[in-house]
Amino acid sequence: MSDTRFRGRLFGPGLPGSGAPATGRWSDGGSLQVAEEGAAGRLLQADHPAVDAAGFNASSLRISWQGEDGAYAFIIEAESERTICCAAAPAAANRHLAEAAGVTTRLERRFRFGAVLLGLILILPLFGIGLFLGNSDRVADWVVKRISTEHEAQLGELILAQTRLQMKVVDRGPAVEAISAIGSRLTTGSVHRYRWFVADRPDINAFAAPGGVVVVYSGLIRTAGSAEELAGVLTHEIAHAELRHTLRGVIKSLGLHALAALVIGDVSGSVFAETATRLTELRFSRDAEREADAEGLRRLVAAHIDPAGMIGFYEKLAAEQRLSPPAILSTHPATGERLESLRQEVSLQKGKWQPLPVDIQSIKNSFK
Amino acid sequence: MAMDVIDYEIFGSEMQYVEVELDPGESAVGEAGGMMYMQDGIQMDTVFGDGSQQQGGFMGKLMGAGKRLLTGESLFTTVFHNESNGKRRVAFAAPYPGKIIPVHLTDIGGTLICQKDSFLCAAKGVSLGIAFQKKLGVGLFGGEGFIMQKLDGDGMAFVHAGGTLKEMVLAPGESLRVDTGCVVAFQPSVDFDIQFVGKIKSAVFGGEGFFYATLTGPGRVWLQSLPLSRLANRIILSAPAAGGRSVGQGSLLGAGVLGGILGSDE
Ligand SMILES: [Zn+2]
């Protein structure tokens, strides 16, 4: 008989319902002796007990047998006691003990696998957003390349409709005629069919929606000192549209909204409408601004419009910024550095400038 | 760690509260919202975790906090400490109709597994842990019964059963099938398995079918006739503003899907 003892809890007929503390020890023949603790404790002998994993989460070792008066079970919960029990077990009980330990381990392993899986399922959408945020430029580029001119025009039409809901937009009158006259010279040969609009808003702002919809705020026209200055802003906005910066911005913002909607679970049409409405709030990157400046300047020169007007308007914006930043600057950040490099570029241009046949003062008067 | 031995008295019949007597220097722990009244000389102290021991280091604390967040418990427990020179009393009230079960942890081997919202209060030194039901079966994450609370120590602990209490002793090998929500507490020697009755399809898309637990002895089990979730469901359903959506027995991710992936124990 082995002298090694292990502690557990004994359950069975005549014992407390919640079990009694007891110690067990193996005999060489494979039978188990269990002694209830305490002076009046009973001593039980199990000749061929069954061994398995049992209890909550199968984390206990159960040694059970059928006594004369009913079923008995000796439950070993503590891991240290289980180890002692297994080490002292005779060969006859070894296989069952190993099987029981296997059940406990497998359950634990499967639970961990399940927890990891659940974690992944919960985290995956967030991971998707992270991936999109990290690579949103590349994703947007990929999408932009696959959008046809027709679709771009449809998108512009939608944005125009949205804008009309928010502000009074006119498509005729002296201001529209003037902008159209300047704009057509800047957009000769474009794949888009350009349409020119003036919005009755006091802010100094303008935007070019994808597909050739250009909206200039009356506040901007009021600020312009000459037709060349007006052309300077116009060419920059046209450049954004031609370089598909606006389209790209819309797609990025749409993508984010769609992903967010996917995660939150609200996949309604409102996502698109909201993005379109926020077009005037789209911010371009510094690189996009530099690109738009360069392309705008190229278009001015090609149209024989004096690029000094572009500088002139930017300087006005910079001056306004000191008082209160004009709306257009919040979407097209104009830094001193950008203005400086533009000045240098412009000074290199030596062309024959044709004056624009537009009387800016009479347009301003037409607003009153 | 030495446990504080506390004397107690339970008042009321269907809406009970337990009054705990603390000797000078003794403490009890409870959820902050469970306190009903306390006499002069008892100091309330909010501690991170369960106040049973200093959890090892920052990571230990973080893990503990994560687990408590997961089970929807508050991150802090309140310790009620008797700072006076005489015996003082503090009372904890049951949050809904039912019975308070006093359990002396030593009598049952030192550990009690209970439904996570059933804990009321305990002697300081009893540790409040989380016990996940790892036997996933088909009823994986089926709400009730998946996350349980584990009380460890050798002092008194008080848990609350909704409705009428049924205390049973299961003989070795004897088993009982119970609605998962009706299980309040059991000894760890009891085998606890959750199963789903009904078609998998209805588990995912709603409909008939429910989860039940199989409890297999040996050991003592405590059952309640009115789980809080059942009560809440009825109230929500009869509330005029609510659209009548049932909660509790539904599952987090559609029990069938994950259960199918992980496989049942059978
Ligand atoms: Zn710009």
How would you describe this structure in keywords?
heterodimer; A: alpha+beta; 2 domains; seven-stranded antiparallel β-sheet; four-stranded mixed β-sheet; B: 266 residues; mainly beta; Double-stranded beta-helix; six-stranded antiparallel β-sheet; 4 helices; 15% helix; 41% strand; disordered C terminus; binds zinc ion
Proportion in helices of chain A: 55-70%
CATH fold name of chain B, please?
Double-stranded beta-helix
Average pLDDT reading of chain A: 83
Order of helices and strands of chain A: EEEEEEEHHHEHEEEHHHHHHHHH
Structure classification of chain A = alpha+beta
Provide the helix percentage of chain B. 10-25%
Radius of gyration of chain B: 19 Å
Number of domains of chain A: 2
The major pleated sheet of chain B works out as: 6 strands, antiparallel
Poorly predicted sequence stretches spanning 5 or more consecutive residues of chain B: 243-266
Radius of gyration of chain A: 40 Å
Distance between the termini of chain A: 113 Å
Count every beta strand of chain A, where a strand is a DSSP E run of 2 or more residues.
11
The CATH first-level class of chain B comes to: Alpha Beta
Shape of chain A: rod-shaped
| CATH architecture type of chain B | 4-Layer Sandwich
Oligomeric state of this protein:
heterodimer
Q: Provide the number of structural domains of chain B.
A: 1
Distance between the termini of chain B: 41 Å
Number of helices of chain B: 4
Instruction: Look at the structure and give the mean pLDDT of chain B.
Output: 77
